[in-house]
Every structure is written in structure tokens, then in C-alpha cells.
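Quick illustration for those who missed Monday's session on complexes.
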Amino acid sequence: MNSDRKTLIVGNWKMHLNVHQSSLLVHRLNERVKVHRDVEVVLAPSMLAMQPLSLEIDHRKFRLCAQDAYPKDEGGYTGEVSFAMLGDIVRYCIVGHSARRIYFNETLETIRDKVQAAVRNGISPIICIGETKQERDAGESRQVIHDQLTTALMNITSRELDSIVLVYEPTWAISTFDGIIAKPDDVQKAIAYMRMQVRELYGEKAAERIYVLYGGSVNEHDVRSYLNIPGVDGALIGAASLNYHQFAAIVDAAYRLRLEV
Ligand code: PEP
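Prediction with phosphoenolpyruvate bound:
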């Protein structure tokens, strides 16, 4: 954790909760989450709930994040929602989540285009980077991280880099894939490697400045051990973000850590 910057706690609701249930969860969270200068709480509901929630949330407490969007700004792309359409509703968009890479065959190039489209439309992409279990077992983790990171940032200038958030989220650690609990030491090494890639592309200052989060089965009991890792600026939370007790406890753990720094 870096005391100069905010801690980001992002809740990825995935394909859960209808509009009513989403409203209810926000209501419950609102009762439990305090406004805190150093902790930014980001909610990624379904696309359907985005508009109503944008009118309901306390914007001092919560920011909205899309889970995905289409890289073209408009056109005959039936069924899609563009970053351009989301520009005045969300602050962030998750890009390159393992679920999208695996279930929807998103390629490195698609993810690169989405990152560029997000930035072009004033949305900060939260770019998920991480290897599968098979790639880890084959000793390919670094190569995969390198390829995903360098392609995602291919068209991003030094100035635009300020709006980028990276997440080390190995597929094997996500609860809906293998759900293996990552060791903080391994997370630290992977994130140091990601910052090294950013250093090679954009220089020392950029590597220090860029936000890097960890994601993968984080819960209210172990969030502290991840937020305490040097170089980690926050967490991407899936399953535990759907339970208001658990998510509020995660946010609270982040507050407490900030108060101790
Ligand atoms: C995710 O899918 O982004 C995620 C972090 O999920 P979980 O916390 O459930 O592993």
C-alpha cells in the first residue's frame, strides 16, 4: 500500500442481481460504508442496473464501473453497449477479465482496442492481467503477464497511463475458476514484475505511479494480507462483493489499514 494514493476496492458483481436486488445491495452498503478520503469504493453491477444506480448512489461514497463494453463508439453492432455510451455514467470499466478471455474468446488485440476506447471516452480501464492454471503449471506465467500487459498498453501514451488501473488476477485464483488461494509472496513477485514491465515501457516514475490491484478469492479475512503487500494499491473482489456484510468488512479493513499508515 502506498500512503500517497487512495486504496481502490472494486466489487465485480458479474452476472448477478437484477435491478431491484442491485438497489437493495447499494442501500445496505450505503448504511455501512463511510466517506473516506483515502479509500475509493467502486461497484461494477450489470449493465442493466447501471443507469438506475447512477441516480441512486451517493457519489461521495461510490463510483460506478462497467464490467465490459464494446470498443467501437457506435454503429450496427447489435446487442452491444459502447464506452462512448457509458462515458457520463461510469468512471471505470473492467477490461480483459479472465471470464471474457475464456468464455468469450477475447484476444489480446480485442483487449488492446477496448483499453484504447475506454481512454478515448474518459473511462479508466481496470485491466485484468493473469495466467491460467495450465500456464502457471507450464512455467509460462511471466511470458503471459508480459504479453497481456504490453499488448493492452500498446496504444497508450505516457499521459494516458495516469488513467489506467492494472490488476494482477490469475485465473487460477478466481473463485469461479480454480479458486486457489494465492500466497502473498507470489502476488508480490507478479506485481513487481508488472511494474517492471511498465518501467521498461514508460520509465521509473510511471511504474511507481500506476495503480496495481490484486484480485482472486479475496475475502474479509485475508484482504489485509493482500493490501499489505508492497506495490498493491487495492483489490478486485468478486464473490465477496455480493454480500454486504463481507464487502463492507473489506472496505472497513482498507480504512483501518489507511489509518495505521
Ligand atoms: C473476479 O472475478 O474478478 C474475482 C475477483 O472473483 P472472486 O473474488 O470471486 O475470485
